[in-house]
Amino acid sequence: MCLYKNSNAFVIRLIWRAAMLHARWHETKQSPNPPTNRMALQELLQSALELESDYEAWEANVTPAWNYHMTPNTPEARSTYDAKLQKLFLGCPGAPEEIHIYPSLKRVWIWGFYRTSRILVLRDLLEMLNWMLRFRDPCLSFRPQEAPGQSMPTALSTANLRMHHSVATARLVEVIEKNCSSILGSFTVPIDTKSATDICGMRGYICIWPLGTMDSVLSSGLVPDSNAGKQPHSATHLPTPPPVHSQPHLATPTSIASSSSEPSTALESYEAAPAFSELRNIRTKSESGQSPGASPPSNTPLLDQNAKKNHIFDPNPAHPYDHPLDLPPLDHGVEPRRIDIAARREWINRLMYYMATELGLKKALWCPVMQGYMPTVKPMVDEILSQERGF
Fold this sequence. Notes:
This protein is mainly α. The chain has helices spanning 7-30, 42-61, 75-78, 83-90, 105-134, 158-188, 201-205, 208-218, 341-358, 366-370, 374-389, and strands at residues 69-72, 98-101. The protein has one domain (2-138, 155-228, 244-288, 297-322, 343-389). It has a two-stranded antiparallel sheet with strand order 1-2. The longest helix is centred in the middle third of the chain and has 31 residues, at 158-188.
């Protein structure tokens, strides 16, 4: 329990471990000889499960000094906030069901770092499980008489992996919901010498990473969509980024190609994105570290290093095995809550545009511009701000 006496330092250690795991997983996906069976990923999966367990333990045992107040996002609760914040954060499609209230910016930020890094751990964990579920179940070919003294490899069985997948998915949804519920707290918590109407860029700057990461994960297909199988409502339909031929300076996210696909020859989309130089440093890695014409030892596809990233907050292009399989529900699995992906992503991108225009945080334009949300969120936010200014 002594680790929890200095909770913020312990969170930093969790984040460091998450970064190491993240790097190892992406090295594995980029390898010219990718894994071909479940045993090859067993040690990495175990590291991810242990790290996620430590994240869970920190939140379960955190000291009362790091607690925060939660209240349902009801009309009564919303009425206590400024009209602009109600329209932007609370009373709109995609808004979270809860409101988190924090006593200090430090506490808001530490919880944001904790939850966002945990989202990345859970994303990596789910991708690992999606890979392993594509490989043959070792229990199906295990013969005890050929390996005396060894037990059945049930830890890598399909049933066991699917149970881990079910739990990790439920936790991912839960952490995303809590992270969204906490965003308003960054804009409302009192700051010494500042009034509630003072513009403070740090209130929004610290939210860019959580919002961008969540938008990336929500676009990945790993989160259960409450509108799955339904025709999306026109007001919350996911926007399609402009095609390259009509907007040569903007990106169009493309699906990851298989190992037989020709490398993409398109210019990096981020080169000519919004006019701030930092974008030029965010590039899809093109060096594959493999000899031309090399092929994996099995049918595991190679990562197309020249493919475009699906999202600017993705570290690399997606691998075909990252995406979940279409499997029937478990009889005794954990049923996660579902999220209205279209509405929640619109909510996220609306906040990003607001932070870019009202707080001057131009980096916040990355998501709405690159994901094609500008035609949707710009009129909404501009109207809200004009009403507040009496125009």
